[in-house]
Design a protein that fits this description.
Elements (H helix, E strand, L loop, with lengths): L1 H6 L2 H4 L1 E3 L14 E6 L10 E5 L4 E6 L5 E2 L5
Length: about 70
């Protein structure tokens, strides 16, 4: 997972906007869904909905994001 994240430049950017089933906001809110690089060090202020490899990358949400978008073609 770390190699993939590094290949797409995630550690340098910190986070990427993500969507689930075409929805870019957390259900019922205006919080953008984000994948955030934490390198196994989750900050106390970050609300993690889920994580990969003990907080290497966390799925979270935040308001008013203007970040890069991660696209996966089906």
């Amino acid at each position: 997972m770390e190699e993939i994240a590094e290949a797409i430049g995630m550690p340098g950017r910190g986070s990427l906007l993500v969507s689930k089933d075409g929805e870019r906001f957390l259900e019922g809110t205006k919080r953008h869904c984000i994948a955030k690089w934490h390198g196994h060090n989750l900050p106390s202020y970050f609300w993690s909905h889920d994580d990969i490899d003990n907080h290497l990358i966390d799925l979270g949400s935040w308001y008013d994001m203007k970040e890069h978008v991660l696209c996966i073609e089906k």
